[in-house]
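quick one, 213 residues, struct below
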Amino acid sequence: MTKADRYFAKKKYTESLEIYEKIFLKSGKASPSMLLKMAFINEGLGDYTQTLYYLSLHYEYAPSNETLLRMEKIAKSQQLQGYEYSDFDYVKAIFHKYYFYFNLLVVLIFGSIFGSFIYRLKKQRQISSRHGVTFFIALIAVFILFNFTESKPKAIIKNDKVFLMSAPSAASELKAKMGKGHRVEILSKKDIWYKVKLGKQVAYIRENNLLQI
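---
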């Protein structure tokens, strides 16, 4: 890693990229800074598919509006689909990054509220409407967080002229033909086929045509 960083600092980008990619392929892991460097180099080389792939991985590690805007800008310039985001998507990304802490916070809040209920019942005190409303709002918040923030895995089409089929079979109906760089949402997998969603369209793509994020 140090050697690759030295090459990068000296602007020997292709040499550093080669080392970074070997590390990534061998370990399957990369630091956020390493992903940004690989994205930067690939963007300079004009490989926008790999650029968006590394930026997408970086976003999974460290969600930020800056990364979102950068991906959207590249996707728009290359007329690529699948990179549209909303504020709720950003909230979901933050939630999943700090999933453990959110769970801990929920346990503490409900523990406190439940403890208050038990205390009042033991003291034979009436539970105020304020406590009831607080508990109800907390329940709704937890329900939303754990049922509507689940993000489907995504993948980027890595090859040109990829067939989107109507079923997990090469003999099925061809629905569309897509170029590389488009990002899809993975719904399920069957053998070598992934059921994916792109915009409002649902289709099947062979596994070897995708870079999974």
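Helices lie at 2-9, 13-27, 32-45, 48-61, 65-77, 87-97, 99-122, 129-147.
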